[in-house]
Design goal:
Radius of gyration: 23 Å
Number of helices: 13
Largest sheet: 6 strands, mixed
Strand order of the largest sheet: 1-5-6-4-3-2
Helix content: 25-40%
Structural class: alpha+beta
Distance between the termini: 64 Å
Order of helices and strands: HHEEEHEHEEHHHHEEEEHEHEHHH
Number of domains: 3
C-alpha cells in the first residue's frame, strides 16, 4: 500500500478500500501493550476471559487472558457492546488481551486441580477480576491470532504461575456451577433466560463449570460458541412453533462495515435459511473472480447435520428466534448477508448474531408476497436477486407451496 495514500487518508476516508484502518489497529494495540517487544508477566484485570483451544483434543490448551491494565475491562467480553465500538477499537482491544497457557485433559473438569479451579474462578466472576500470570518464556507481542469463529485474541505463552484476586461471583453462573445434577443444556438455557451475555455463557460451558458432575468437560471455545447458539436457538424455535404465524412478509435490511444484512420473515410454518455471499477481496473469497453464494437451511423439523456454512448459521438463528418471541408470533425466515471487498479480517460469529439482532430491532416493511419482499431488500443488493432466489431453499419451497394451493383450487 503506497505511503502517499495513507498520508492523504489518515484513517478517515478508507482510501485503501478496507473497512478498517490497519495502521490504527497496530498503533492502538501497541500502545495497550506498552510498546514492549516481549512480556514476561501479565498483570491486569481479566474481563473475565478464558479461551480453550481445540488442537490435540482430548488434550487441550486453556488460556486465561487479560490486558496489561487494571480496572473495569468487562466490555472486552460482552458481545452486545462490541457493535457500538469502531472496528479498529474492537480489534485492537481484543488483540491487547495477553494469554497464558496450560494443557489439560478435557475430563479434568470432573475433578479439577487447584490451577483449573482458579481458572474456573475467574469465569464465575461477576465482573473484571485482577490476575497475575507469570510466564515460562516471554510473549512475542507481534504474534496475534485471528479466527473466523471466535473473537480476535492476543499472543500467548506457557504459564509458570497463575494467581487471581478474590472477587464477587455471578449468582446465576454460581447456581449452575454448584448444581451437579443439572444437564448442560438446561444450564445454558437458564443462564440465557437470566439475561447473561452469550459470550459469558459459552465461556462457562467451555471451562467445564456446568453440566452433570461426572460428565463435566472442558470444551474448546470454538465448539462451545456453536453449542450455546444451537441450544438457545433450539429452545426459541420449539417455543415459537406453539404460536400463530405472522400474516405478512416482513422485510429488514441494514448496511454496516462493508456488510449488507437482509432478513425476510415469512407467514408460514417454521422454515429457515442462512446465506452468505463473499465478494472477491473479502475474507473467504480473497482471490476469486466473482461473488459466490452459499446457503444452508432447515425445514420444520430442523436439520441432522452440521451446516457447511459454519457457526453463523446458529448465531443468526438465535436472533430470528428472539425476533419471533418479541412479536409473540411464529413463521419462517430468510437471512442473507453480502460481504464486500475490504472486509477481510475475521472477527468471530458474534458479529453476525449481534448485527442480526440489531437488524430485527428496526421497523420492517410489510409485503403480501415473497417476491415483493425480495424486491425491497434487493434495492441495496450487489448480487443479482435472481442468483439469491435460485439458491434459496425457503424461496423455492414457499413458491412451490403457493403453486400447489393454486392448482388444488
Amino acid at each position: 500500500m503506497p505511503a502517499s495514500l495513507c498520508m492523504r487518508c489518515r484513517g478517515a476516508k478508507r482510501l485503501c478500500g478496507l473497512s478498517y484502518c490497519p495502521i490504527e489497529i497496530e498503533m492502538i494495540t501497541r500502545s495497550k501493550v506498552s510498546g514492549q517487544k516481549s512480556v514476561r508477566e501479565i498483570d491486569g484485570s481479566s474481563p473475565p476471559s478464558v479461551f480453550v483451544g481445540r488442537y490435540g483434543y482430548p488434550k487441550v490448551y486453556v488460556y486465561p487472558s487479560a490486558p496489561p491494565v487494571k480496572g473495569d475491562t468487562s466490555n472486552l467480553s460482552v458481545s452486545s457492546t462490541w457493535l457500538d465500538m469502531p472496528l479498529e477499537e474492537f480489534i485492537s482491544a481484543r488483540l491487547s488481551m495477553l494469554r497464558g497457557s496450560k494443557e489439560f485433559r478435557v475430563n479434568d473438569a470432573v475433578d479439577p486441580d487447584k490451577l483449573l479451579q482458579r481458572i474456573q474462578e475467574i469465569s464465575l466472576s461477576r465482573g473484571s477480576v485482577d490476575v497475575d500470570i507469570l510466564l515460562e518464556k516471554p510473549i512475542d507481542t507481534s504474534k496475534i491470532e485471528m479466527d473466523d469463529h471466535v473473537t480476535p485474541m492476543g499472543p500467548a505463552s506457557p504459564m509458570k504461575t497463575f494467581t487471581v484476586d478474590p472477587s464477587k461471583t455471578d449468582q446465576h453462573i454460581e447456581k449452575v456451577y454448584y448444581d451437579t445434577d443439572m444437564k448442560a443444556k438446561h444450564a445454558v438455557i437458564q443462564l440465557y433466560e437470566s439475561g447473561l451475555d452469550m459470550e459469558r455463557i459459552s465461556q462457562s460451558l467451555s471451562v467445564g463449570i456446568m453440566g452433570e458432575g461426572k460428565k463435566r468437560k472442558i470444551v474448546p471455545t470454538r465448539w462451545s460458541i456453536t453449542a450455546v447458539d444451537s441450544m438457545v436457538s433450539d429452545e426459541l424455535v420449539d417455543d415459537l412453533k406453539q404460536r400463530p404465524a405472522i400474516d405478512k412478509f416482513l422485510a429488514y435490511r441494514m448496511r454496516v462495515n462493508g456488510n449488507y444484512f437482509m432478513a425476510i420473515l415469512t407467514p408460514s410454518s417454521w422454515i429457515y435459511e442462512w446465506g452468505e455471499s463473499w465478494f472477491p477481496g473479502s475474507t473467504w473469497n480473497m482471490w476469486g473472480s466473482q461473488a459466490e453464494v452459499e446457503i444452508d437451511y432447515e425445514g420444520y423439523n430442523g436439520r441432522k447435520t452440521y451446516p457447511d456454512i459454519g457457526g453463523c448459521y446458529y448465531s443468526s438463528r438465535v436472533a430470528v428466534g428472539e425476533a419471533f418471541r418479541k412479536m409473540g408470533r411464529s413463521g419462517g425466515a430468510i437471512t442473507w448477508r453480502e460481504i464486500y471487498p475490504g472486509f477481510n479480517i475475521p472477527v468471530g460469529v458474534w458479529f453476525v448474531r449481534e448485527n442480526i439482532r440489531r437488524l430485527f430491532s428496526q421497523r420492517p416493511e410489510a409485503f403480501d408476497t415473497i417476491d415483493e419482499a425480495i424486491k425491497y431488500v434487493s434495492e441495496w443488493m450487489k448480487v443479482p436477486p435472481e442468483k439469491w432466489k435460485s439458491n434459496s431453499y425457503v424461496y423455492r419451497t414457499l413458491k412451490y407451496e403457493n403453486l400447489e394451493r393454486f392448482f388444488s383450487l
